[in-house]
Specification:
By secondary structure, the protein is mainly beta. It has one domain (about 5-65): SH3 type barrels, CATH 2.30.30. The chain has one helix at about 5-10; strands at about 15-25, 25-35, 40-45, 50-55, 60-65. The chain is globular, with a radius of gyration of 14 Å. The N and C termini lie far apart (about 50 Å).
Length: about 80
């Protein structure tokens, strides 16, 4: 194992991650919390819900810092 596969295998569940996968016509990113993994897939909880990504489509993955705090609205 190396690269994104080693990272995804070793990262604790609940880590905030971005996972880049290959899709028809290019690439897409899933940003959220690592919720599950197997040899064949990885699950990331994004703002839009839980997505399951095939490990065969993963091209990059890394941990990302927590989202910035929302600033109070100025009136």
């Amino acid at each position: 194992m190396s690269g994104p596969f080693a990272f995804l295998a070793d990262a604790p569940l609940g880590t905030r991650v971005v996972v880049r996968t290959r899709i028809a016509g290019g690439y897409t990113d899933a940003l959220g919390f690592l919720r599950g993994r197997s040899a064949a897939s990885v699950s990331v909880e994004t703002k839009r819900g839980l997505v399951t990504l095939a490990m065969s489509d993963v091209v990059a993955a890394k941990a990302v810092p927590p989202a910035p705090q929302r600033r109070p609205r100025q009136i």
